[in-house]
Specification:
This protein has 1 helix and 10 strands, in the order αββββββββββ. It is an alpha/beta fold. The longest helix is centred in the N-terminal third of the chain and has 27 residues.
C-alpha cells in the first residue's frame, strides 16, 4: 500500500469512528428512542359524524386505513396525520368522503419519519353500499363484520 492510500484509509476509518461516537452519544441522550430523530410532526384529528351515510369513499397518499366497528351507534373518524398533509372529512350525497389535502411546500417532502399516518373509521357494524379506498402506500384493513354491495380497494405499493 502506498502512502496516499494509507492516509485516505486512516481518514476514512477516523470519520467512521467519529460518526459512530456522535451517533451513540445522541441516541444515549435520547434514551435510544428513534422516534425522537424524526423530522416530520404528526397530530391526531377526530371527527364525529352526525349525518347518516351508506357509502364510504377514502382517498389518501401514505396512510394506513382501518375500518372498524364502533361500540355505540356513532360514526367517528380519527386521523393520525402529518402536519400540512391533513385529511378532510365530510358527508355528501349519502357518502362519507375522507380525502387528503397536501399543503406542504416542496422542501417539506424531505424528512425522516418512523411512524405511519393512520385513518381509523369507526362505524356500526352493518351493511353498506359502496366502499372505495385508493392509496399510494399503506395497509387497508376492513373488519369482517361489515358487508358491502361493492368494494374497490387500490394500493399502489
Amino acid at each position: 500500500m502506498n502512502k496516499i492510500t494509507k492516509v485516505w484509509f486512516v481518514i476514512g476509518v477516523s470519520l467512521i469512528l467519529i460518526g459512530s461516537i456522535i451517533f451513540v452519544g445522541v441516541m444515549t441522550v435520547n434514551k435510544w428512542d428513534f422516534s425522537k430523530l424524526q423530522t416530520n410532526k404528526f397530530e391526531t384529528s377526530k371527527y364525529d359524524i352526525t349525518e347518516e351515510f351508506r357509502n364510504i369513499h377514502i382517498l389518501t397518499d401514505t396512510a394506513d386505513v382501518q375500518i372498524v366497528p364502533s361500540d355505540a351507534e356513532t360514526y367517528m373518524v380519527e386521523c393520525y396525520e402529518q402536519e400540512n398533509l391533513l385529511h378532510s372529512v365530510s358527508v355528501k350525497d349519502n357518502t362519507l368522503y375522507i380525502e387528503v389535502s397536501d399543503t406542504r411546500k416542496w422542501y417539506e417532502h424531505i424528512g425522516i419519519a418512523w411512524t405511519t399516518p393512520k385513518i381509523t373509521v369507526s362505524v356500526p357494524a352493518d351493511e353498506y353500499g359502496k366502499l372505495f379506498v385508493k392509496a399510494s402506500t399503506g395497509n387497508v384493513s376492513v373488519d369482517d363484520s361489515f358487508k358491502y354491495e361493492s368494494a374497490f380497494v387500490s394500493v399502489t405499493t
